[in-house]
Amino acid sequence: MLSVLVTLIAFTILSFPFGGDRYAYSQSNDTNTSLNKTGAGVDLIDIHPSPLHLKSGSKFQVIATVVNDSPGKITFTAGVCDSPLSAQFLRNVVIRYTQGCTATSPPFELKPGEFVSVAGPSSDTIYQALAAGQTTASATFHYQSENGQPGNVTKPFIFTIS
To answer: What's the pTM?
Structure first.
């Protein structure tokens, strides 16, 4: 619980653009190249809501780890206003759309074998838990391949609202 709180505080503090890390709201710039998976493509793992322990009425984000297991780099736009990660929910959650910020973000590059955590939704979307219960959802990550072709990966996940 403490690590989630620290992460949320860090995202909040780093989301203000003061010339430093402009990507902090939507993902960590810390990539890890020690991943040793077999497969080819882009994958989503460890998908979960943030905060982890949701109560009815709470607003939340979705966090996922993006794994680039493809032979080439991928790029995606992520920053204070933008997120390449979105989710759809079968029940117990409402998605609200608001006016978000308009700052643009440069593309983030993820090389083969690297992975990074991303958070969604974008600043113009709010996820709010409506009712208690187990909730089935699917997260979708949008990116561009090294040759500029758009791509996405969608993975289901389940979480509980209390």
So the answer is: 0.76
| CA 61 – CA 73 distance, rounded (Å) | 26
Give, rounded to a whole angstrom, the gap between the first and last alpha carbons of the chain. 16
- CA-CA distance, 130 to 94, in Å (whole number)? 7
Q: pLDDT, tens digit, for every residue of 22-67?
A: 233 344 444 443 333 434 699 999 999 999 999 999 999 999 999 9
Domain count, the chain: 1
Domain at 132, CATH number: 2.60.40.10
Query: At CA 113, angle to CA 108 and CA 115, rounded to 5?
Result: 50
Q: Which of 151, 158, 160, 161 is CA-nearest to residue 41?
A: 151
Length of the chain in residues, anyone? 162
- Tell me the percentage of the chain whose pLDDT exceeds 70: 75
9 three-class SS: helix
Handedness of CA 26, 31, 35, 41 (dihedral sign): positive
Which residues in the chain show pLDDT less than 50?
A: 1-39
Tell me the residue range of the domain where 71 lies.
2-161
